[in-house]
């Protein structure tokens, strides 16, 4: 009888630990894939990046197109043509449509790059096409304007966006 109770207790304890682990995994997944808080109106998308962690990538949309925003880590290299400052941190932004034939690449967290499932295209976290893969050019950058310390308005062309356009290599 005592043996049965002990087994029951161990079973419940292990079940509890597994349950807590599963819930923690789900919370982490939700945090990673949650779209950014955003408001869409008349061709503009207002996005709040407040609370993003260093290195985190979050998705939003602009005019029906998938857009990603990455918060750079303090140790990451900053590229004038691909990165901008907002509230004391740097971010990268791009329209997540493959410049080869228009598929939607996925972010590979473990590899640290975007992978296009169609023909194996790869893009860096800054959205630059990787040599030796099919995409001919980097992700397009949506026009955007910085507002305050944590807000972006996609669809408006602000000075940070213009600075990136000016710094881009000319074809
Ligand atoms: S559409 Fe992305 S590699 Fe071909």
UniProtKB/TrEMBL annotation:
The gene is petA. InterPro entries: Rieske_2Fe-2S, Rieske_2Fe-2S_sf, Rieske_Fe-S_prot, TAT_signal, Ubiquinol_cyt_c_Rdtase_Fe-S-su. The main subunits of complex b-c1 are: cytochrome b, cytochrome c1 and the Rieske protein. This is Ubiquinol-cytochrome c reductase iron-sulfur subunit. One of its GO terms (molecular function) is metal ion binding. It comes from the Bacteria. The chain crosses the membrane at residues 9-29. Pfam families: Rieske. Residues 97-153 form the Rieske domain. Its EC number is 1.10.2.2. Keywords: 2Fe-2S, Disulfide bond, Iron, Iron-sulfur, Membrane, Metal-binding, Oxidoreductase, Transmembrane, Transmembrane helix. Signal peptide: none annotated.
């Amino acid at each position: 009888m005592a043996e049965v109770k002990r087994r029951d207790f161990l079973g419940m304890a292990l079940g509890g630990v597994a349950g807590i682990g599963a819930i923690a995994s789900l919370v982490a997944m939700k945090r990673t894939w949650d779209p950014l808080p955003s408001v869409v109106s008349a061709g503009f998308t207002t996005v709040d990046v407040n609370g993003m962690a260093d290195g985190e990538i979050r998705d939003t949309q602009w005019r029906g197109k998938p857009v990603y925003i990455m918060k750079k880590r303090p140790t990451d290299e900053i590229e004038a043509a691909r990165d901008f400052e907002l509230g004391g941190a740097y971010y990268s932004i791009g329209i997540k449509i493959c410049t080869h034939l228009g598929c939607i690449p996925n972010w590979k967290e473990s590899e640290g790059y975007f992978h296009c499932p169609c023909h194996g295209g790869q893009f860096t976290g800054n959205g630059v096409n990787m040599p030796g893969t099919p995409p001919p050019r980097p992700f397009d950058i949506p026009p955007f304007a910085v507002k305050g310390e944590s807000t972006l308005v996609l669809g408006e062309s602000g000075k940070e966006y213009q600075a990136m356009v000016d710094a881009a290599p000319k074809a």
